[in-house]
# Entry
Amino acid sequence: MTKAMPYLSAVQQALADFCARTHNDPHMASTPTPSFSSFVSTTSSKDTALNEDEDDNCLVNPHTPPASEQLFTTHHTEFGYCANETYRYVSKHDYTKPFQDHAIEKPPFYIYFTTYISLLILYLLGHLRDFFGKHFVKSNFTYLMPHNGYAPLKSDFDIFLRRVKHRIDDCYSQPITGVPGRTVLLLDRYSPDYNYTQICTGGMTRALNISSYNYLAFSQGRGSWADAVTESVRRYGISSCGTRLDSGSNDLHASAEALIAHFLGTEDALLCSIGFATNSTFIPGLVGKGSLILSDELNHTSIRIGARQSGAYVRMFKNNDMSSLESLLREMISQGQPKTHRAWKKILVIVEGLYSMEGTLVNLPRIVELKQKYKFYLYIDEAHSIGSLGSRGRGVTDYFDIPPGSIDVLMGTFSKGFGAAGGYISGPKSLIDALRLRSHSGPYAEAIAPSVIAQVVVSMASIIGITPAGQPTKSTPFLSPDNSIVAPKESAEELLGMGPASMLPMWMKLCPSLADGSEARMRMRRLAFNCRYLHAGLKKLGFIVYGHPSSPIVPLLIFNPGKLPMFVRMMRARPIPIAVVVIAYPATALHTGRARLCPSASHTKEDIDTVLRACDEVGGILDMKYSSCERWGIDEVCERAVELVHSV
# Structure
């Protein structure tokens, strides 16, 4: 308790100072006085039950307690305390340097050889077990046999893959409880039958969370976000109980759509209750028979499903390869439709702003140049880039400082950067009005829940910043594609100003740090620093890492399938447990299994140090350091973190 006592006393002093300022300042009188529960506490019921008030528990107590004048309005377990301003970075493309295509570093030949040998052994032993199980131990393999004359619902190979996954199911679908913030509470479990069943012990383990999509850490249990969600449930209930075209729309939906359009700098926006359905239900409303879709080969499954359902002719080009895209454009435009060779009704190019498995960033300046040359429509999926990229969190257009009017359709989700659920489509008003009727989600899918909309509105408003009532705001002009340029003279601040107070519901109140946007700016800069530090640190330690340095997705290549579960188990068994996820076939290529690390704004510099030290130790044991780049020691990486971030 020697370390926790000054920490708690500093928080109590901060609370007293805040209450005194609120009492003396008439402008702050309308802001509800925060209770002690809204500030950091190390004595919550769960923490006490887990005995987490020990001096050496860095997951609960910060290394440096906050000073009395510093307000720290979240639990350290949800959002780490980090007051050092040097651990910040602005996410923005440097136009003095050319855009660098992602270079895939290949491991030594023996890594590929041992990986394929391991897969071959796994395949042979698994099918031998299935063969003997069918013919000699039928009682234990009844799921492989026809049932009452019916054919099996699943193929033998599908069942084989499921049985292989069962052996490592302790590394997947790990149940958690609490807020998926800086740390996460894992429910302890064990299996007596090789993971066919999992039995919870009733215990919990707090682990450093490096696996959630909570990039800006807006998914918190306390604060203005949670207060707004609670109030929305009281006013609107827990469900819309209808589709958008029937009785499911309310004023929150209208406010959110106007706010999204203002946030992105477009004319209008449309909501969808599920991020996956945003692509799969809206793409068929954009194109149909006689149209052409050119899709990146690594686009998300939701894009592929939407493209197939549309009835359009689909061709794929190499991932983020602009030469491949241009040659395909030339071929398809010159040849026209198959058989008839008529001109295409529409040509729609679909890319992702940030590719979820590779962590690579789309070469948007080059695509915009091709768009001006070949006159196609451009659709960008910003599921992972919106909120996490750009100096103002507007995604790839903000990162490259490209006018949003250069893009015909901007799609994004709320489950990553905004700590909510659902998705949106944004673009010209005529297009959005047509999609309200023609997309499948409008007449058939239930409208997004009011509580989720409240979370979206508060988190997005905190990024934009809300001007007090009565003060003028800068207008947001719509830029047509004909006037699009790659490097605009106007800054993004001139294009996208703060939002007026009228855009929020009357009952929704934001604390000063959220209303002026300072809280969100701090989070975006912390996220940018953490991403670049983790990416550069892993490369200096000798790992092969994919992706862009500013990407919140950091794929750490492991290759060998046997090392994937061992990496998860060893990271979870460390003195400071670390929760990680691994990705394998079919989500990736057969030989490129990886751990997908997701830093967030809630992590401190010490947290990234902890992850790097753990990866350095575990990677050395499992022989995962295959990179040929210059290597540093772990102590040098931690000491020169700021230099690493600015040199990438």
Remarks:
- The chain has 21 helices and 14 strands.
- Confidence is low (pLDDT under 50) at residues 18-49, 473-496.
- The longest strand covers residues 199-209.
